Please model this.
Amino acid sequence: MFKEQKRIKGPATQDFVDIEKIKDDIVILKNGGFRAVLMCSSRNLELESTDSQNAIISIYADFLNSFEWPLQIVIHSRKLDINPYLVSLEEKLKVQDNELLKIQTAEYIDFVRNFVTLSDIMIKRFYTIVPFDPIESTKGESLEKFSSLINIGKQGTSEVTEEKFQEYKNQLLQRTEHIILSLAHIGIKAALLKTEELIELYYNLYNPEEYEPHAIQ
Model:
């Protein structure tokens, strides 16, 4: 008679998530660190003249040298789900009275459908992660302590009082404002993600199979 094997309980899903909570538009990590996330626009250097490219690169270098803390720039690429867009076109096709426009719409739908079958259409979003750690490394120390967006060093949770939270938050927001203004000089718009947007972002990062960006209708 076989003995019943004990089921070994593995680590909970939460153990792999390095976020303690999201509060007042701030990501609080399990190691006590604070993070603000900026969504940024992009700028194509290849469309600029040589002089403009050199100027942008020079401004960007000044931007990187303007602060003494680590900074993370994340490019998030996802396959674009074009189906909702095609469905909306097919609905418009059904109610189209003009025969010429009806033919052109049908041909356009076939073109888009065939095009996406030949290659994946990707959407890219750009984020800047602004850090603040209550106990930070001194200048010149290794950046090994800096935590990435997904793989952040696991340490014990550090609880802070509301007074300390507001103090740390204000210092983080000062850095954030500096970065937003500096990026504006490069022609890049940046906006601080709010609590709901942060929750959606991190949920999609940890559940990639459930998320595919839709085409703009």
Notes: The beta strands are 19-23, 26-29, 34-40, 72-79, 122-132, 190-192. The chain has two domains: 19-78+124-210, 83-116. The two ends are 63 Å apart (CA to CA). The longest strand covers residues 122-132.
